[in-house]
Design a protein that fits this description.
This protein is α/β, with parallel strands linked by helices. It has 3 domains: 10-129, no CATH class; 134-224 and 494-527, no CATH class; 232-490, Nitrilase/N-carbamoyl-D-aminoacid amidohydrolase. The protein is 44% helix and 14% strand. It contains 15 helices and 12 strands. A 6-stranded mixed beta sheet has the order 5-4-3-2-1-12, covered by helices on one side. Strand 10 and strand 11 form a beta hairpin. Helix 1 runs antiparallel to helix 2, helix 8 crosses helix 13 (428-443) and helix 12 (400-408) packs parallel to helix 13 (428-443). It is globular, with a radius of gyration of 25 Å. The two termini are 15 Å apart.
Length: 527
C-alpha cells in the first residue's frame, strides 16, 4: 500500500508521536499567514501571486492529519491566523467609534476570522478524505468545486461575509480576471485553488494540468466579443474627505455641506452627465426640509445637473409606531426634484443593526447611534439622463447577487457609494475596492465608486481601474467614456445554476474518488 503522502511536492518529515501540533503546523501556518498578508491588499506591499500560499498552507496542514477531526482542526488552525492578519482593521472602528476598550475591540478580528477559518476547516476535511487518491484529475476537480462551494456558502450563511474572496487578491491583474465573467469570482477562486492543488499533489501530470489551467484562464478573453459602441456618459465623483469623528456633529453639518457644494460647483464646470456624492454625504435628514436641504436643491437647480447623494432617512411602517431608519441614496434631476431613491438592502451586522437583537437585547451595536437601520426591499435602479444606475451602498459591493439583481432590473452602469473613513489608513479600503472590481467583471458593467475618504474609482467591465482618486484628500474624480452597456455575461445569465454546479462538481469528484478507492481495495485484496 503506498504511503498517504506519496506524490506530494512537499514531503513532511517523519514525526514522532509526541511531536507537538504547534511544531507540526509551523510551516503551513507561516505559509498561509504570509500568503494572506501579502496576497490580499494592504497599505505596505501587495504581491497578488502570494495568495496561492494561503490555500497551499491549508492543504498541507490537512494532509498531515491522521483523522478527520484532526484534518478539520489543522486546517482551521492554519487559516485562522491568516484571516486574522488580513482582517486586523475590524478592531479600529469598534475601538475608535464604538467606544470599546482595546481589550474588547481586539478580539473582533479573531472572532470573524474564526468563522472564515471554519470554512477552511471543511475544505481541509475534504482534502484529507481523498487519502491516497490525491494524484488524480478528480482530486483537482474536488478542490475546485469544494472551495468555490464554500465561498458561495460564506456569502449567504450567517448574514453573509464575502470579504477576502480569494480571487479578489488578483484584482490588480485584470488580465487574469476574464473567467469571472463566466463563472464569477467564486469560480475563479476555485480555479486558483485547483492550480495550487495540482502543484502540490499531482506530480505525475503537473505539466499537463498547468497547460490546461493556462488555457482555461486565456479562453475567456479569446471568446470575448466586444459589444458594439454604446452611448457614452461622464460622471464627477465628489470626495469630501470628512473626518468620521466630525461627520455627525450637528454644529458641523453646514460646514460639511459647504465642502460638498464647493467641490460640486467646481466639478460642474466640466459638464458631467451625473454628479455623485458618497454614502451619507448629507449628514442630516433631507426629508425634514429646512435650510440645509434647501441649499442642496438650490445648487442642483442652479447647476442644471442631476445628482446622486447619500443621506440617512426614515419611514414609518403602515402597521407600527416606531420609525425605521434607512441608509439612502437620493436621485435629484437637473431641476432639483427627487426622482427616486435607493435604500440599502444588505446592512452591516453590528454596525447598522444587531442580528437577533430582539432576542439578544444585551448586545448593542459596535458603532454609535441609538437606532437600528432597516433594509430596503426589491430596490430598483435609479434612472436619469440615459443612465440606469444599479446602486450598491458600501458593504453591498462585496455581494455578487446584489449587483446581479440590479443588472437584471436593467442597470447599464453600477454605482457604489461608500464611506470607508471608519477604517482609516488600513487595508480595508483597498480590499473593498478589489471586491468591487469583481462585480464589474461579473456583470459586464462599468462601475463608478464614490467614497468619502477614498478610494474613489472608475472600473471598466474587464476589471481595469481606468482612473483612481487619492485617499484622505478632498477631490473630484472626473470619469469619461463610460459605456452604457446592455449585454450580459454568461455568469449573469446562469447565476444560480453556476453556483449550484460548484457543489455538483465537488460531489461528483468525491464520489468518483471513493468508488475508485473501493475498486483499488477490492483488487488488492483478491488472492
Amino acid at each position: 500500500m503506498p504511503s498517504k503522502f506519496s506524490g506530494l511536492l512537499f514531503q513532511p518529515r517523519h514525526l514522532s508521536p509526541d511531536f507537538s501540533t504547534l511544531r507540526l503546523l509551523y510551516g503551513p501556518v507561516c505559509l498561509a499567514v504570509l500568503g494572506a498578508w501579502f496576497g490580499y491588499a494592504n497599505p505596505l506591499i501587495h504581491i497578488p501571486i502570494a495568495i496561492i500560499m494561503l490555500p497551499a498552507g491549508i492543504m498541507l496542514a490537512a494532509s498531515r492529519a491522521s483523522t478527520q477531526a484532526q484534518a478539520f482542526r489543522y486546517a482551521f488552525l492554519t487559516a485562522w491566523p491568516a484571516y486574522t492578519a488580513s482582517l486586523y482593521w475590524l478592531a479600529l472602528p469598534v475601538h475608535d467609534y464604538g467606544a470599546l476598550p482595546w481589550a474588547l475591540a481586539l478580539p473582533c478580528p479573531f472572532l470573524v476570522a474564526a468563522v472564515l477559518a471554519g470554512y477552511a476547516g471543511f475544505f481541509g476535511l475534504g482534502i484529507f478524505t481523498l487519502g491516497t487518491r490525491r494524484d488524480s484529475g478528480w482530486g483537482v476537480m474536488l478542490s475546485f468545486g469544494l472551495w468555490a462551494t464554500l465561498e458561495v456558502l460564506r456569502n449567504v450563511l450567517l448574514t453573509g461575509f464575502s470579504w477576502l474572496t480569494l480571487s479578489s487578491a488578483l484584482a490588480p491583474w485584470p488580465q487574469v480576471l476574464g473567467l469571472a465573467a463566466w463563472i464569477g469570482g467564486f469560480g475563479l477562486s476555485g480555479i486558483i485553488v485547483s492550480a495550487v492543488y495540482t502543484l502540490i499533489f499531482c506530480t505525475r501530470f503537473r505539466k499537463l494540468w498547468a497547460v490546461a489551467l493556462v488555457i482555461i484562464c486565456i479562453l475567456p478573453w479569446a471568446l470575448h466579443r466586444s459589444e458594439p459602441p454604446q452611448n457614452l456618459a461622464s460622471a464627477a465623483l465628489i470626495q469630501g474627505n470628512i473626518d468620521q469623528n466630525q461627520k455627525w456633529e450637528p454644529e458641523l453639518q453646514a460646514e460639511i455641506l459647504d465642502a460638498y457644494l464647493g467641490l460640486t460647483r467646481q466639478a460642474a464646470s466640466h459638464q458631467p452627465d451625473i454628479l455623485i456624492w458618497p454614502e451619507t454625504a448629507m449628514p442630516f435628514y433631507y426629508q425634514d426640509g429646512g435650510t440645509l436641504p434647501t441649499q442642496v436643491t438650490d445648487t442642483v437647480r442652479d447647476l442644471g445637473l442631476p445628482l446622486v447623494a447619500g443621506a440617512p432617512a426614515y419611514s414609518l411602517p403602515a402597521h407600527g409606531s416606531e420609525y425605521i431608519l434607512h441608509n439612502r441614496a437620493y436621485l435629484f434631476n437637473k431641476n432639483a426634484q427627487v426622482l427616486s431613491w435607493y435604500d440599502k438592502e444588505h446592512l452591516v451586522p453590528f454596525g447598522e443593526y444587531v442580528p437577533l437583537g430582539r432576542w439578544l437585547p444585551f448586545i448593542s451595536k459596535l458603532v454609535p447611534g441609538a437606532y437600528e437601520f432597516g433594509p430596503g426591499h426589491d430596490q430598483l435602479p435609479l434612472v436619469t439622463a440615459g443612465l440606469t444606475m444599479g446602486m450598491l451602498i458600501c458593504y453591498e459591493a462585496i455581494f455578487p447577487e446584489l449587483a446581479q439583481n440590479q443588472v437584471a432590473k436593467g442597470a447599464n452602469v453600477l454605482v457604489n457609494i461608500s464611506n470607508d473613513a471608519w477604517f482609516g489608513r488600513s487595508s480595508a479600503p483597498l480590499q473593498h475596492l478589489h471586491l468591487a472590481v469583481l462585480r464589474a467583471v461579473e456583470q459586464n458593467r462599468f462601475l463608478l465608486r464614490a467614497t468619502n475618504t477614498g478610494i474613489s474609482a472608475l472600473i471598466d467591465p474587464q476589471g481595469y481601474i481606468r482612473t483612481q482618486g487619492p485617499s484622505f484628500v478632498p477631490s473630484i474624480l472626473l470619469c469619461k467614456d463610460i459605456a452604457l452597456l446592455t449585454a450580459t455575461t454568461f455568469y449573469h445569465d446562469h447565476f444560480h445554476a453556476i453556483h449550484a454546479s460548484f457543489a455538483l462538481i465537488a460531489c461528483m469528484a468525491w464520489t468518483a474518488l471513493r468508488l475508485a478507492g473501493q475498486r483499488f481495495l477490492s483488487t488488492t485484496s483478491t488472492p
